[in-house]
Amino acid sequence: MEALQLRLAEFAAARDWQPFHTPKNLATALSVEAAELVEIFQWLTPEQSAAVMEDPETAGRVEDEVADVLAYLLQFCHALGVDAASALAAKIDRNERRFPRADRSGGAAPSNRTEPE
Fold first, then answer.
1. Cβ(4)–Cβ(74) under 8 Å?
2. Within 10 Å of residue 23's Cβ, how many Cβ atoms?
3. How many other CB atoms are there within 10 angstroms of residue 33's CB atom?
4. φ and ψ of 82, to 5 deg
5. Full DSSP string of 87-104
6. Closest among 40, 5, 41, 42 to 26, alpha carbons compared
7. Which domains are seen in the chain, by residue range?
8. What InterPro entries does its record include (predicted)?
9. How far is residue 107 from each of residues 1, 8, 99, 102, 110, measured CA to CA in Å?
10. pTM of the predicted model, to two decimals?
């Protein structure tokens, strides 16, 4: 991820885009790109959404939007000094404590929430 962050920083620097890459602007751009990814799936049935990568044109759109989301997330993390991998590992650790493994006898462990944040 560090190599990708460096490459993105060099790309932005070569175009004098750094003044625009503030945390607010990067968070906004990330949100827009995530919405563009959602748009691809907006009216699909669950079955259609599971098969979306079977169509080369749609698969390309999905991959492009995933790349845009990841690029802005990495740039956002770089701007704020967030180690994305460490942040994710810490979040998984917290969720593992908050949401214990399901009881294999058929029921899930009780929780006041149904999904991790």
1. yes
2. 13
3. 20
4. -90, 130
5. HHHHHHHHHHHHSPPPPT
6. 5
7. 2-98 (1.10.287.1080)
8. dCTP_Pyrophosphatase, DCTPP
9. 38, 46, 13, 7, 9
10. 0.83
Is residue 64 within 8 A of residue 53, CB to CB? The reply is no
Amino acid at 35: A
Query: Tokens standing for 64?
Result: 């492009």
Fill in the DSSP letter of residue 16: T
Residue whose entry in the numeric block shows the structure tokens 């294999």: 104
DSSP structure string for 18-84:
GGG--HHHHHHHHHHHHHHHHHHHTT--HHHHHTGGGSHHHHHHHHHHHHHHHHHHHHHHHHHT--H
Local confidence pLDDT in tens for the 117 residues of the chain: 889 999 999 999 999 999 999 999 999 999 999 999 999 999 999 999 999 999 999 999 999 999 999 999 999 999 999 999 999 999 999 999 999 998 776 555 555 555 666
